[in-house]
Amino acid sequence: MNILTRPILEFNLNNLLDNYNVLAKIASPATPAAVVKDDSYGVGSAIVVQALYEKANCRNFFIAHAVEGEKLASLAPNAKFFVLQGIGDDSIALFKKIPQLVPVISSPQMLKFWQDNAISGVKPVIQVETGLNRLGFREDELKKLTPQEREMFCLVMSHLACGDEKDHFMNAHQIETFEYIKKTYFPKTPASLSASDGVFLGENFHQDLVRLGAALYGINTAPYRPNQMKNVVTVKAPVLQIAHLPKGDFVGYSATYRASSDRKIAIVSIGYGDGLPRSLSNIGKVFFKKDGKIIETRIIGRVSMDNIICDVTNVDGLQCGDIAYLADDFYTLDDVALDAGTISYEIMSRLGKNPRFDKRYI
Amino acid sequence: MNILTRPILEFNLNNLLDNYNVLAKIASPATPAAVVKDDSYGVGSAIVVQALYEKANCRNFFIAHAVEGEKLASLAPNAKFFVLQGIGDDSIALFKKIPQLVPVISSPQMLKFWQDNAISGVKPVIQVETGLNRLGFREDELKKLTPQEREMFCLVMSHLACGDEKDHFMNAHQIETFEYIKKTYFPKTPASLSASDGVFLGENFHQDLVRLGAALYGINTAPYRPNQMKNVVTVKAPVLQIAHLPKGDFVGYSATYRASSDRKIAIVSIGYGDGLPRSLSNIGKVFFKKDGKIIETRIIGRVSMDNIICDVTNVDGLQCGDIAYLADDFYTLDDVALDAGTISYEIMSRLGKNPRFDKRYI
Q: In this complex, which of A255, A273, A345 lies closest to B305 when CB atoms are compared?
């Protein structure tokens, strides 16, 4: 028996590389780019960028903010980092310092800013709006671009709203709009429309460059069929204590669980402070491996900042220091998200940013 | 007009110090200790510890994991850091290296581990279970302690389950149980029962030491009456783009919002990747300050990783680069949490861990 206190995050980089190669092959001959924003959805951008750059020859990365690229650029010296949130007074200094950073320009105001502050040798990306109604030039704004401005961009991009629903009417609407905008305003410019979800929607969605994000990290971006991606993230935590819960006793904050019979409970060293959603209170599943079997248990009471309490009445021989599985290949973050009432993207982006996790890379 | 891209987190350390002093005064003559686990609920432990140590003479800090104390101990050389998750094989090296770390022992197994690995000069804390049914010795385990073991601890502590509900029956039950355990097993040991919420429950809850956490950071831990704490956290983000939303158009992922009339929208540079709960989709409130007035607007469509979309039809003269307020003293994180279906603790613990935030301390 070991006494352990820290939660553990395991990332399988081999599976991540396999996912990248599978996605790149489906999208071929489109250029594959990796979306490593938000610390690579929590996996850790430095390690992900290095692996993709060195082992998969990836040369195009997407980040949200220039500051995210500050430490990454030198790890991938011949790569470009496209900055989705664009450029402004609060990031221009970084763009000047690191010419690998390429801004994505999404509005006439930002274009004006770029023209007043252009960095020689850098051709920016233009984002156009095709139905998501988020960032991007609207058509009345595109009409005002001069012929010279229409040829100043290295890439014209847009983003799908419903790419994870195969037959959603928005997909047809967006590709039609995108093709019209390309033909009308940017006939000579390479184009990108799809993130991971669009890769599975067919060849016309691939365009010249695909932006591989969620699926890279194992998320099922085509939930209308079983996941074709390999699992990347395993979330584990040790049992700190095992105790008897007498019939009638309450559990956790606000006493939201009451034992209807004598139970055995385990206090497990992970909580919402580690990124586990608090909405898993009284709902979340926790697994233990015993004698080659996977045993399912349930979180009882509220998830607290550092701990959860599990009903382990049905787990024989459990000891302090035994490992609880919160997510793994048999119960993925997509499954956790379903229980938590959100999407795995949100959970991933919260995990791993806390120094308390013992992070391990395979 | 500025073009800005980064979200901004502002922390008011003066208000934090004021909160500490108010709480310490209410709890006097009990010793005040500060709970700085989880990076001080996201505020930033290094800065919080330094401020409390130097300006408020705080000498007792609580953290969850030993690893959290690694960088803090040298900032507060004469302080102790009590480690709530205790000590084990995965943290013993740190305890040996930093004698300011004091483990909280919560189970007989962990006590055995401590006795096998005791660090000279360090007297640990014992945690006892009084109704939360989380970490702590149960009475059958206390009975087995030898007379010598009963006197080996520097502090006996427990934790309230329902301290934020003034008249909850659990409060009376827990204080009664705690007094009984103290008298029976630890008559000579200093005691601690209350976190911030217990401070407001009356003198008998104060014991010898109070653990000031949530209220320090401005959270209302006595929600049965108006908040007596000052606001510590302000969450802001710039408007990246303003656009026309035609009647009938959809907004955001999965097209969950459709405009029933022509609207004006703003794309604001903050999302769940920054810690804003995705459950604010189509619900969350966003504020703008114009001509000395605070104007309320609503998030429409889904919160995405880096952006939200707001209906700003009623905000005249809005420009790119204008600042949206997600939380401030007029709409605190407690209010955000109510809209998001969670508690402000969870939201706080997610904000600020992302390097993308421009963090400012007042």
A: A345
Give how far B75 is from chain A: nearest CA, Å. 18
Residue B105's alpha-carbon distances to A338, B92, B109, in angstroms, are: 36, 13, 9
Residue-level pLDDT at B355: 75
- CA Rg value for chain A: 23
- How many DSSP H helices and E strands does chain A contain? 12, 18
For the entire predicted model, the pTM comes to 0.94
Burial class of residue B144 in the structure, from the number of CB atoms within 10 Å of its CB (0-12 exposed, 13-18 middle, 19+ buried): exposed
Residue B349 touches chain A, beta carbons under 8 Å: yes
State which residues of chain A have pLDDT below 50. Answer: none
Q: Which residues pair with B311 in a beta bridge?
A: B265, B298
Give one DSSP letter per residue of B129-172, joined into a string.
Answer: -SSS-SSSB-HHHHTTS-HHHHTS-SEEE---SSTTSTT-HHHH
By the 8 A CB rule, do A281 and A303 touch? yes
Give the whole-angstrom CA distance, residue B172 versus residue B179.
11
Distance from chain centroid for Cα B67:
18
Would you state the pLDDT for residue A353?
A: 76
Please tell me if residue B352 touches chain A, with a CB cutoff of 8 Å: no
The CA-CA-CA angle for residues A66, B359, B277, to 5°, reads 85
Quickly count: other Cβ atoms within 10 Å of residue B200's Cβ. 21
In the predicted model, what is the mean pLDDT of residues B271-282?
95
Cα separation, A89 vs A79, whole angstroms: 24
- Cβ of A68 within 8 Å of Cβ of B356? The answer is yes
* pLDDT tens readout for residues A323-359: 999 999 999 999 999 999 999 999 998 887 777 898 9
Cα→Cα distances B169→A244, B160, B174, Å:
22, 11, 9
B66 to chain A, any CB pair closer than 8 A? The answer is yes
- How much is the pLDDT for A72? 96
DSSP H or E stretch at residue B222: none
Angle (CA) B224-B228-B233 rounded to 5° is 110
Which residues of chain B make contact with A349, given a CB cutoff of 8 A?
272-273, 305
Instruction: Report yes or no: B73 and B81 within 8 Å, Cβ to Cβ.
Output: yes
Whole-angstrom Cα distance, residue A59 to residue A209? 12
Q: Does B46 touch chain A (CB under 8 A)?
A: no
The string of pLDDT tens digits covering residues B171-205 is: 999 999 999 999 999 999 999 999 999 999 999 99
Work out the percent of chain B whose per-residue pLDDT is above 70. 99
